[in-house]
Amino acid sequence: MSAIPPYAPKLERFSSGMPGLDRVLGGGFFAGGVYIIEGRPGAGKTIFANQLAFHAVASGRRALYVTLLAESHARLLQHMQDMTFFDGSAIPERLTYVSGFRALEEGGTKALLDLVRQELRANHASLIVLDGFAAVGETAETDRDFKKFVHELQVNAALASCTVFLLSSGVTDRDAVQPVHTMVDGLVQLTDHAFGVRMQRELVVQKFRGSAYLRGVHSFDISDEGIHVHPRLESFSADLADAGTSERLGIGISGLDAMLGGGLRCGTTAMILGPTGVGKTILGYSFLAQSTPTSRGLLFSFYETPKRALAKAQGVGLDLEARCKVEDLELMWQSPVETSLDVIGGRILEAVHRKSVKRLFIDGFNALQSSATYVERVPQFFGSLARELRAHGVTTVYSAELHAIFAPQIEPPVRGISPLLEDLIIMRYTELDAKLRRIVSVLKLRESEFDPTIREFVITGRGLRVGGDLDGVEAIMTGVAHDVSKGVEAAALTPSKKRKRRSARSRG
User: Fold this and answer.
1) How many angstroms separate the CA atoms of 324 and 183, rounded?
2) What is the CATH number of domain 13-231?
3) Highest-scoring range by mean pLDDT, 140-149, 319-328, 456-465
4) Domain locations in the chain?
5) pLDDT at residue 503 above 70?
């Protein structure tokens, strides 16, 4: 590979200061580039630009913010001052706000360009924001004048190694192309979509010269800390090493571990399927109760808060609190309301990296599914998260609810998800002898032998205990079992013997 000639040095990059955005951009924006940030009113453009500017001055650089709107700077700053990135001491020495509205109105694009040049020289800025860029296009007499303005702005930015951000409230149709889009170095679109009664903010990088970037739709949110981008998990988890091994992690229930051949293989993904109240969560808690300093655990629950989870575990003889005190186990809770799959995935992966987690129990696959705004994403997201976790040697157990308490058929919560699971454990209710009994069976254990016997289990004050098989009983998984051995015995009795047995029962 030939060296880069001296007249074309490698472009310098800088951080945006927005969590998640640099990963989407492949490392941040390029110094000297010109970028359009496009979105309808309320999409978050002004917060985006101010967060960029304040991050730049916090890093020791200078920034210039030019407004083309009638809104006063005092009003703009009043809206920004509650943001944690806001630093009033940086204004006006390091961050200068200038109004270009009058220059544009009175002298057109040439006067505005002269103003930008003048302020650029006076403030030695390395970052310029032009807020209200659509007004330039409306003021320019011809398309040629508009393009000429953008071209001259690019030349000045390149000479001063200054990065320019143009905020536009123009067309945000992802398929729409404006002539100016072809001239700039990058185009980032911000939108706010309604999904039923929910709203979700989304970011798309339509163009980014000089670097690979994560394509597609990425969600983001706005809080007092500013903008936080959540890269779509599927967009960066394609090439990951598999850290799975042949070693096993025990569930902590001797009967079930025996059925599994010693436990779950490290780095695999398992799902516990069962109706409400059957014991899925308790089984998951048993798995976490085996956490150690070399095999740390994480509970990520959609239903039970940490306090309730500890109390529930204590009620069945599982001391998760002791594991938490020595930091072998962390408990996390996530509301499935008003969130996104990528927020959930990000929180899980952050905790896994931070605590070097090896045992993960995600209690509530159905809640994770309901948080998806694009339902068709669920299998792909699930597979991507599984690959990320497997690459870090995490053994993951999900609980998922079967909607039918008694049913002859078992349907997975989402179509297309079964091939992504290495292990599948079924917990069911069945009726036998006028009693409701709990049963468990291993339906799948990829690349490993297992005991497929259907076994009865009970939940006691000392945990979940798996017993023997139900020999002679059929149709167990339908929910209405019957004892074949009793039927055979009854058929072998003669009529006289049957009368004698009934008579003996009545006397007894």
Assistant:
1) 56
2) 3.40.50.300
3) 319-328
4) 13-231, 248-485
5) no
